[in-house]
Design brief:
about 210 residues; alpha+beta; 4-stranded antiparallel β-sheet; 9 helices; 4 strands; about 45% helix; about 10% strand
Length: about 210
């Protein structure tokens, strides 16, 4: 299938088959796609937490409207964004870039100083909104990568983020949960959505061309 055909095949799976497991290599490929995706200033201000532990997922299900995909999926991916931009985090990102590329230039130094001056001063709440937006870029990439590999997924915001942060001890790591993504395989005979046509706005009302 072409990419568009795979995106046509993809949908927010409502019932997953708990007896089926996504091969590790496919999960790793989806995670790497997220790692390689775009982020503002290349800071990658979020982390992925992959949960396979059954007991832990039962706890998460309880604070996520008892959505069955959380426990029926093969792997549960939590996107957790930085709770703030700190000088340490910004410097670590730029230090890594300079090490990997093995050079430092005036433009990079100036850009680092600009971020160090502007980002931390905005405060944690403003900064968390920004880091969460970056996590959603990663989510979009994960959805496409999963579809490309024939893996079903369901983006989820329907959970208590404060409760999830507590379950996963995210505050201690300077993180806050943003969105979850169960990965698995659809159970067609029990999923009410699987046979329904995909509904999207027509191109004419969705896309504008300015020439």
């Amino acid at each position: 299938m072409s990419l568009l055909e795979k995106l046509q095949w993809r949908y927010a799976t409502k019932k997953m088959d708990a007896s089926k497991s996504v091969p590790t290599e496919k999960v790793e490929e989806i995670l790497d796609a997220v790692r390689l995706t775009a982020s503002s200033s290349g800071l990658q201000p979020y982390e992925l937490i992959v949960i396979t532990n059954k007991d832990l997922r039962e706890k998460i299900k309880a604070i996520a409207n008892n959505q069955s995909q959380i426990t029926d999926c093969s792997h549960l991916v939590v996107f957790a964004a930085w709770d703030d931009y700190t000088a340490q985090r910004i410097n670590d990102a730029f230090d890594m870039t300079e090490t990997v590329r093995n050079f430092k230039n005036d433009a990079g130094v100036a850009y680092r100083q600009m971020l160090l001056k502007n980002y931390p001063a905005k405060g944690p709440e403003v900064n968390f909104i920004h880091t969460a937006k970056q996590a959603y870029i990663g989510l979009g990439t994960a959805l496409i990568a999963a579809a490309e590999l024939g893996v079903d997924s369901t983006p989820m915001e329907g959970f208590d983020p404060k409760a999830l942060d507590e379950i996963l001890n995210l505050k201690e790591k300077g993180l806050r949960s943003v969105v979850m993504l169960p990965l698995g395989y659809r159970k067609e005979d029990e999923d009410w959505l699987v046979k329904l046509k995909k509904v999207r706005r027509p191109k004419e009302s969705f896309i504008s061309w300015i020439k």
